[in-house]
Amino acid sequence: MTVKPKRSDALRQAIEEKIALGEYPPGMRLDEAELSATFGVSRTPLREALIQLGMSGVVEMRPRRGAIVAEVDPKRLCEMFEVMAELEAMCGRLAARRITEAELAELRTTHIASQAAAEARDLDRYYTINASFHAQIYAASHNAYLHETALQLHQRLRVYRRMQLRVRDRLGHSFAEHDAVFRAIEAGDADAAAECLRAHVTVQGERFGDLMASLRALERKAG
């Protein structure tokens, strides 16, 4: 059975997408009245969505100004991705050892769905399935604290991970990396699963440059 997302969750995703596309650039004030009119919703689910975005650090809630799209500190962002890479590696290592047959079957189904989305170049669908793929690996670690911590940081980095997928050829590379992760977990190879996930999430060199270029482009729109 497909669970229909809450209205506030759908709104959060829609606002995140506009931030990732640069329609809502860093420093922009998110006016509640305008957003209500744009999305055709009441203020209540909208405020819930903005609170979620504030908790993830994507927007800042300021007194008398409301929600502002957060400015990005490159050093801070790099540090967050470094921690995320290690958390994902830990999850992958434990999942390769602890995943149940039912969880592996679910992960396989998600992986196959992501392949279809990648081949169709359906970025939005791929992003949604991609998030599920990672969340399922966190759960398969069977370490509740690690699962919770990884999920929280993943949520904070959500908009930037989405932004990365818009870099040319990144969608295909992302799926290839997922394929290596899945095969390692399926084989029960804990070391390979950890290393594949670490490499998949680490943002450095050209990939960091691409992400920073995307962010600078958004800042120019704001200016």
From TrEMBL:
Keyword Ligase: no
Gene3D superfamilies membership: GntR ligand-binding domain-like, Winged helix-like DNA-binding domain superfamily/Winged helix DNA-binding domain
Protein keywords: DNA-binding, Transcription, Transcription regulation
Domain HTH gntR-type, residue spans: 5-72
Tagged with keyword Transcription: yes
Protein name stated in the entry: AsnC family transcriptional regulator
InterPro entries referenced in this protein's UniProt entry, alphabetically: GntR_C, TF_FadR/GntR_C, Tscrpt_reg_HTH_GntR, WH-like_DNA-bd_sf, WH_DNA-bd_sf
Species of origin: Pandoraea pneumonica
GO terms of molecular function: DNA binding; DNA-binding transcription factor activity
